[in-house]
Design a protein that fits this description.
Elements lengths: L1 H33 L21 E2 L18 E9 L3 E6 L8 E6 L7 E4 L9 E6 L3 E4 L3 E6 L3 E9 L6 H12 L2 E6 L17 E3 L9 E3 L34
Parallel strand pairs: 6-8, 11-12
Antiparallel strand pairs: 1-2, 2-9, 3-6, 3-10, 4-5, 4-9, 7-8
Length: 253
């Protein structure tokens, strides 16, 4: 029996490594890029770090000194933004990259990638992108990509081709393209007032995904969470809670 339990623990430990490590790694990458304790700190030219909800643009090609994230390309300049969709919707529009290769990856905290956007043919424009919180959904049309996700964060990773031996003038051309990426943060409207039931009670829906009727929605993280209620007795009201009546004391034998 003890041997079986040991095998169970080994399997559990293996599952934790396989399924939990991507979440930990992605959070570490986000913190390294956004530096929440000092978000406006100066970053090296080969870093694409920036404060939350802002694009950071790599101005120099990657080299061995860049240790953020996984092994980066050495022939593309990166533009990276970590977006918090809990309180904001986002729109993203791209400049005309002409015949230059450019792609933009939309990645989630579990390291999955719902879509990577690139021109279907050289010279064609990239579609606009809309990102917001909600039930998991991806819609792709000729002119727009709509991503809805129950995750709090979305990472946008842009890669724009640069020849390794590119001149300063060629780099400056890519810098202008990076600066022309249009990221708009659209504050989510204030939640509607709660809707009470006919008997005066209040029913609250608790979920990570935004329901169709969000009047009584309480958003929570995707995954396990702890629900706690803190109740206060009002000082002036027409209703008073019933009195607390102590139970008769029982003698312990």
């Amino acid at each position: 029996m003890a041997e079986d339990r040991t095998m169970d623990l080994e399997e559990a430990a293996r599952a934790v490594q396989v399924w939990a490590y991507p979440l930990v790694f992605a959070q570490r990458v986000r913190l390294n890029f956004t530096q929440p304790l000092d978000p406006t700190a100066e970053r090296p030219l080969n870093s694409a770090g920036a404060p939350l909800n802002t694009f950071g643009h790599q101005r120099r090609l990657s080299d061995p000194t860049l240790t953020v994230g996984v092994a980066p390309n050495v022939d593309t300049l990166y533009s990276v933004a970590w977006l918090d969709v809990r309180h904001n919707d986002f729109s993203l529009k791209f400049p005309d990259f002409g015949t230059r290769y450019a792609s933009f990856q939309l990645a989630l905290p579990d390291t999955s990638t719902p879509i990577t956007i690139s021109a279907p043919a050289p010279g064609e424009r990239l579609p606009a992108v809309s990102i917001a919180a909600g039930p998991e959904q991806l819609e792709v049309t000729d002119g727009e990509v709509r991503l809805r996700t129950p995750w709090r964060y979305v990472m946008v990773v842009g890669r724009i081709l640069v020849e390794p031996e590119a001149s300063d003038e060629a780099l400056a051309d890519v810098h202008r393209l990076q600066d022309s990426i249009d990221l708009q943060r659209l504050p989510v409207a204030a939640p509607p007032r709660p809707t009470f039931d006919l008997d005066g009670s209040l029913t609250i829906q608790i979920s990570a995904a935004r329901p169709d009727a969000a009047a009584n929605w309480l958003p929570v993280p995707a995954g396990p969470f702890r629900l706690m209620l803190r109740l206060y007795r009002p000082t002036t009201t027409k209703w008073d809670p019933p009195p607390l009546v102590p139970a008769p004391r029982r003698e312990v034998p």
